[in-house]
Amino acid sequence: MLTRRQIPFFNYPALFAPDEQELMALMRDVLSRGAYILQKDLKEFEAALAKYLNVKHAFGMADGTNAIVLALRAANVGPGDEVIVPSHTFIASVYPIKSLGATPVLVECGDDHLIDPKAVEAAITKRTKVILPVHLNGRTCNMAAIQDIATRHGLQIVEDAAQGLGSTFRGRHAGTFGLAGTFSFYPAKSLGCFGDGGALVTNDDQVAEKMEMWRDHGRNKDGVVADWGTNCRLDNLQAAVLSYKLKKFDAAVARRREIAGLYDRRLRKVEGLMLPPGPDAHPDHYDVFQNYEMQAVRRDELRAYLEQYGVRTLLQWGGRAVHQFDKLGFNVNLPKTTLMTSRFIMLPMNTSLSDEDVSYICDVIEQFHAKA
Ligand SMILES: *Cc1c(COP(=O)(O)O)cnc(C)c1O
To answer: What is the position in ligand 1's atom list of the atom closest to the CA of 185?
Structure first.
């Protein structure tokens, strides 16, 4: 008989409570300086992020979605162009394509839940301009395969790394392979701020020059409007919070990988479950487990059973891939993604979980499958 625990999917107050004193002190410092927009705390965060990712330029952005819009604009995406993107992603990966008047081409994902390079190659037409891989769940896509395709077809790569901060492929960070890469600091992301926030990184000096202007109403260093731009600035206060949290990020990632290892060891052999690659499954990949998304054949029953035992799970994006939102008018058949979407379930994955919590979740899952 299991002793019932209450395990939320995500513990929002825990973003603040454990470090309350330090966070209040740093926020008081920023506020009392009157430093709200484009101040030194933002510059410092951008420098720290660029260093962490080993990339030339980093820009704080208002959020991850609008960072993608600007990245695609830098790739000259416009009407008549096609951008290839996985259907198993947040709508925020796809809206930016539409917003520029271009056509999103949705493709299948592979067994690791990430865009399938074979599907990318098959979807290329004369109109294809950009491949937009999404480093989902804290795992970097197979960028060797995607770079090879892009090179052979003369395409640009723009990376949605909103869920991929800190993950690497062959030692290189998610977000740093293409023309530009974008991140999100939405609270539930592995590096979360206290509201909306995002970033764009690039190794391209010309793209960097554009971002400096485009995120600040098209103004250049002299404050003169030199191009059309928007307001896509990361608040200085959020930047200060993010600098603080970035210092502790490696420890947070280590804990996520530990939890993933616990899930992997306990659940790998459970019949009816298909787990994501484990933390040490392949030397090319260093995964940070933004999410722990697995497939379960009897997903809905398992979910209800866990709920009964106090364990909250989540279906990413309400349990639908982008092509399954009828109102958006996609008329595309993606059988693999459709099947996988009916099986995807995310277990709690965050640094507030104790080993006992994880063990309890595994007990409940084992018990569910044993009684069947
Ligand atoms: C969170 C997320 C975004 C968007 O980020 P926001 O900061 O919320 O705009 C984009 N793509 C993916 C895959 C995400 O998970």
So the answer is: 7
